[in-house]
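Weekly structure sync, notes
Attendees: PL (lead), two postdocs, one rotation student
Agenda item 3: pending single-chain targets
PL asked that the sequence for the first pending target be pasted directly into the notes so everyone works from the same version. It is reproduced below exactly as submitted, 142 residues in total.
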Amino acid sequence: MNMRQEEVVNEIRRMCGQAVRMQSLGWHFRYNGQAYFYVVGKDESMLRFCIPFVTGICSHERPRLKEAVDETNRNVKFVKALLSEKDEAKILLSYDHKITDNESAKEIVPHIIKALDFAVGYLEERTNNAVISTATVSSGSS
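Predicted structure, written out during the meeting:
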């Protein structure tokens, strides 16, 4: 593990507790109930974090999920949301950051984790509120 990677992992552990090394991928950890990965690549200045499967999404309607993903991509800075082509209800969130010499892991790692956490809440609000309002409209028209 190089020095930059060690700083990042130490900051993850400080913020989230346990971080487990996944041999071919990087590091796995949990924050606010979501599973995160710190993906380690050849370029040590590139930080890549992702939530491979956002949990807590009630809707399984693809058009509603696609709309929520598109809205997240438009309105949540730095985070990229992707709707799986294979699994209809699977949403992935990622954050890539090219770290500069002036930045430290103590500054950027909490920002990345909190930005992804915010995006989870944003997605949940858009998908789950839509489900509630649809149910209300449906029950009101019967």
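Discussion points:
- The longest strand covers residues 91-98.
- Strands lie at 19-22, 26-31, 34-39, 46-51, 80-83, 91-98.
Action: rotation student to compare against the earlier draft before next sync.
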